[in-house]
Structures are given as C-alpha cells and as structure tokens.
Write a structure and sequence with these properties.
By secondary structure, the protein is mostly helical. A 5-stranded mixed beta sheet has the order 1-2-3-5-4. The two termini are 53 Å apart. The N terminus and C terminus are likely disordered.
Length: 797
Amino acid sequence: MILSILLIQLCSDVCLSQISKPIKKNQSVTAKTEEGLTELGTSVVKLDSMQMVLRNTVGSEKKADICFLISRYYSDRLKIDSGLFYSEKIKEFSLLGDYEQGIGKYHLAKSYALFFRNIRDTISLGKAIDIFTKYNDFALLGFAYRIKAKQFTLANELLQARKNFHYAIHFFEINNNLISLQYVYYELARSFSEVFETDSAVYYLITALQLAEKINDPFRIFSASAKLGELYYFTGDLPNATFYFQYAIENRSSRVSKILIRNVLSPYIGCLVQQREFEKAEIMLNEYEEINTKITDSWGAAMLNYLRGKFLFYKEDYRAATTHLQLAFDTMIRISPISLESKSIAYFLGRAEFATYLYELAIPDLLMALNINQQVRFGENVLDANAYISLAYEAAGNKDSALHYSRLYDHLKDSLFTIAKEKAVIELTTRYESEKKEQQIELLERQNQLTAYELKSKTDEIEKQKLIARQNAQQLVLLSQQNEITRLESSEKTLAFENQQKEIERNQKELSLLSKQKELQSILAAKEAQRKNLAYLAIAIAVLFSAYVFYRYTQNKKLSKQLAISLKELKQTQEQLIRIEKEKETENLRVRISRDIHDEVGATLSGVALFSEIAKEKMEQFKQKDAMEYLEHISVNSKEMVEKMSDIVWAINPGNDSFERIIEKLEAYSFNICAGKNINLQFNVHDAIRHYQPSMHVKRQLYLVMKEAVNNAIKYSDAKNIWLSILNQANFIIAEVKDDGKGFDYSSVIRGNGLTNIESRAESLHAKLGVDSSKDRGTCIRLQFDLHPIGGQLLPV
C-alpha cells in the first residue's frame, strides 16, 4: 500500500479525485445497458416485442432462441430472477425439440445471469463451450469465452482472464463481429489499468478506440477516449491526456448523459490549467457551468468553484482563487467531508492562503488536507503539503512546528528517491513480464491456429464420408430406375390391350348417348317454361324489397337528425364539465402548495424560533456550550428548510414537467450522495418514460419517495451497492430502490419519519407500496402506480 501511494506521488499534481468518479459512474450505469445483444447480430428490441414474437412463434427451436434473447435482455438489466426463469424456458423448449445447440444456450444464459450475482458457474459454461465448439458456432463461442474471462476477473485471476479474453478475440475475428471485438479490447485494457500496467492498458485501449471509430459509434469513441485521457493523466503525460479528453468531448452524443460529460470536463480543465491554456480552459469552465445550471446539485456547485479556484490559482490571482476555493470547501465539507475532492480543495485553499500571506488560515487547511489524506489512504500532494506547512509555521514565528514538518518533508523526499529506484526496477520487471506474456499470447494464437486446422481436417473428413454415402445412394437410385424402366415396358403392352377393349366400349356408349340426347331435349323444353315463371316471381319480389328500403331510408334520416342534436347538447355539457374540472384542479393546486409550504417549512420555522429563544436564554446565562448546541440545531433546520423549499419550487416550475427532469435531478442527487459514501449506484430508466409529462403532484411525490428511499439505504443499510430503477410495465410506473445491505425486520422495526413519509406519499399517489427486507439480505422498496389515475392519456412531447 505504501509503495503504491509513493509511486502515485511521483505524478505531481495528478488529481485522481476528479477522474475516479466519472469512470465509476460509467461502469455502474451504462456498461451493462450499452452492450445489448450485439454479439448475436440482433438489435435490442423492446421486451414486449420479443414476448409477442415468442407467443406467435411455432417450433421449439425458434422458441428456445427467442427465450435466449429474452434471458440476456433481463440479465443485462440486472433482473437476474427473470433471466434465470427464461434460461429454464430455453432448456424446456430445447429438450422438447431435441435441440442440442439450445441446451448450449441454456448453459450459457444460466452462467451469464449468475455472473451478475458474483457466482462462477464454470460447469455450465464449460458445457456450453463444448456444444458450440461441436457446431462451430463462433459468435456464441466468443461470447462464452468473454463471460469466462470476466469470471476470472471477478476472482482476480487476471492471467487466466486475459487468456480467455484472447480466445474471445480469436472467435470474434473469425465471425467479423467488430462491436464485440471493441468491447473485449476495452475490457482487456481495464484488466491492465486496474493493476497499474499502464503500457498494456494504453495499447489495448488504442485498439478499442480504433475499432469504435471503424464501427462509427460515438458513445464507444467517447468511453475509450475518456479512459485513455484518464490513464495519461494518471501518469502525468498532460499533452496526451489533453488530446484524448478533447477527442472524447468532440465525440459526445445524445447517449452520453450530462453527468458523464461534466465528469470528463473536470480532469480536462485540470490538464488545461496546468499547461497554462487558460483561454480554452475558460471555455470548458463555461460549459461546465451550463451543465450545472440544468442539473442544479450541490456537488456540481462545489466542483465548479473548485475548478474556478484552481484556474485562478494557476493564473496567480490568489485572492480571487481563495474566494472560490473557500466556497467549494464549505459546500464539499457539508456533503462529503472525507473524500479525495475535500482533500484536494483543502490543499489548494491552503496554497492560495499561503500565497496571500494568510499563514494562520493556511496552516489548518493544509493540516486538514493531510488528515483527510490519512483517512482516504491516497498520497497525492502529501510532500508539498508538509513543505508549505513548514514554511507557514516559520513565517508565523512557530519555529518548533516548522522544524517538525520540515523533517517530515525531508523524510518523505528521501523515501521518494528510494521508491523512484524501486520503480525503475519494477518497470524493468514489468517490461520483462509483459514480453513474457506476449510470447504466451503468441503461443496461444498458434495453438488456436492448430485447433482451427484440426477442426478443418475433421470437417473435411466428414465431408468426404458424406460424399461416399451420396455416391452409394446414387448407385442405388440407378438400379431402382432400371427396374422401373422394365416395369414400364411390361405395363405399356398391357395398356395397349386395354385401350383396344376401351375403344369397343366407347362405340357402344355413343349409341346409348344418342338416345339419351333426345330425351334430354324434351326435358329442357319443360324447364324453359318453368324458368320464365320464376323470372316473373323474382321481379315482383324486387319491387316489394325496393319499397321497404325506401321506407327504412326515410326513418333513418329522421333518427340521424335527432342524434345530431343530442350529440351537440352532449358536447356542450362535456365542455362545461371540463371547464369546471380545470377550475377545481387549479384551486386544489393552490391548496396543495400552501399546505406543502405550511407542513414542510412552517414546522421547521417554528423549531428555529423555539431554538433561537432557548439559545438566547443560554447566552444570557453564560452557558456558551449549550447555546452553541442550539445554534447548531438552528443551522441544521435552516439547511433542511432551504432544501425543502428548493424541492417545492423545483416541483412547481413548469419547465420541470417531464420525467426527463425528474430523472436528471434524481440521478444527480443519488450519484453525488452515493459517491460521498463510496457506494456503487446502478441507475436504470426506460427511455420511453423520459418523455412523459406527469402532474406536479405525481412529479413531487415520486421524487420525494425515491429520495427518501435512497437516503434510508445510505444511512442504515451499510450497503456496497444500490440499484435504482424507474420502469414502465403494462401502463404502470414501477419505481424501485434496492440495496445489498444488512436489511431489517419490517414487521418489528421501530418506524421513523422515513418509512412513515414514504407510506404517506405512496397513499397520496394511490400507489401500491412494497417493502421487502430481511436480516443480511438487503432491502427493496417498490412503488407501483398508474401514471394517469383519472383515465386520461397524455401524449409524449
């Protein structure tokens, strides 16, 4: 750990606090959903469409193939139970149709779903590979080896993982599946970057970027370029980092969220200011500020002040830099006190205060940076911080403290010199290991070629056997044809004799036909007379029918006029009812707003007033400690009141009437609060929902329920992962917050304001609320409601 920290120190002024967060979000939110089903050459379609195709498909093999697509669809979206359910359906249909490749797909789908639960099902995956090898199914072989590689990565067996990644590359190259190749190269690069083998990571990332450019996918270009910029930034190569960050920004598309763009802009701005490219840095800062204006979160505001402070610091405008850095520090300490961001802001704030001769302010800020560094265990800026603390104490006249931190500086400097030597040895060893691994990879490729040659030989032998069998079959056909010719000759003679007999019989029949013809002519004459009588009868019936039709027409015309008058009156009545309903809705809206302000803010203001009186009495009694405690309550309640007012104003604003705004605000809030607690958040939202326009009441209640659920998970669950999803199923909105924390017994838990508020807001939405939790099995809060409770149907904008 100490070696890694000191190696990182050698990369002077490399602020990983700015680039670790966007990479984490990119992995947790988009990595699963963007991959889709591209290995199979099948576009991602809606679940309803696939299920409809399944219902209308005839044939067990086709049903098994569709179930395989559906199982992967669910697994990609972390709905593991549904993925396993449809994997069993694959097995059921495959056994029904004796479909061996379907059995392979069953094993593959099962192991793929279990992978997302951190379970290595190597047996099922091995059976799938054996079956796909038998049928030369290169596309699914590539996919299977890719999952096998990810399983080894999960177990931290990186050498085996890379070996299987290369197997996957081999089969994807045979199948010419460029999209899957790009994804595998990107994953291979990540396996090297996670253990600081940056040379190999950069090589495979450049290959992934070239493939992304070849398939012309802006999102993949953005991801690979951003990752390359991160690696170069980490190693202190600012020109290359700047180039790739700029390339990522230039290739952003609608699929890249505003939060991802903002998180790439942050290290990009850091590169620019360190290289004194202030004009371009200012343009990027303005764009960062525009994104913040749309997202409106505290995290973004703190980081914007930090970046502006850093910008002014490198321009040597230290007083203005101090103002922005102080604002950033105050905000970040409130939302994430122990984090890399807080440490970096405290460090630059201390530097700026030192440059403006404010030594008494610089010392505690630099000491706080060192204190946070010890808690987050990241050694960046430690050497410089000790040097500046020593100089600040010396300038302030505290010689003993100055000497203490000067000795710390010298000790760390000597350690860095020693570590630099060790780093050179490590680099030589790493280069040797890399060459050795490349030789192993080359040997593996040769083994793959040999395997392919053996497969080709076996295929040629099978074709030869099929050819011999086809020749034998042709000889049997020739013999049967000769026997058929002999039979035809004998039957031809028999047919000639039969024709003579038939000629005699035909002459006899002609004579009998002449006599029957005369009888027929007399019968036809009688039928002609009968036909005339029937014609007269038909004319009479037609006249009667016409008179009846005319009578019905006149009656229907009268009824139509009466119906038109009734419809007009009904329309007027409906318009009047709609107008009354709108007036009633406006009145209800005013009542709800006043009630929300009274409930949410009135109570808080009452508490602030009460605490103020008590604090005043304590001050008069010279009980300063007790007074400070009540003043702290006033501060907390005031911040809470401001946040509640912000939520009310945001909900009232007509510009936020789409689900897109709700999702952006909820996503920004959730990611920021989870990042502060080092919790991995996975965010999943149906694209169709983003364009819906709910009422103000639905919008606010949904946002507050999800916000409360995320807060409860972070405060009480001790979870490492949180899943947040908003989906549309069968005209219902289903919002869910799930964690893998310690859980609780819902029937016996002491209810606080959190659960009570969630139940109250669910009842206000006429929604079905589900709370599923048990000890050590996590918690799931699920909200299901009809988007249009009055039966209306809004059109998407």
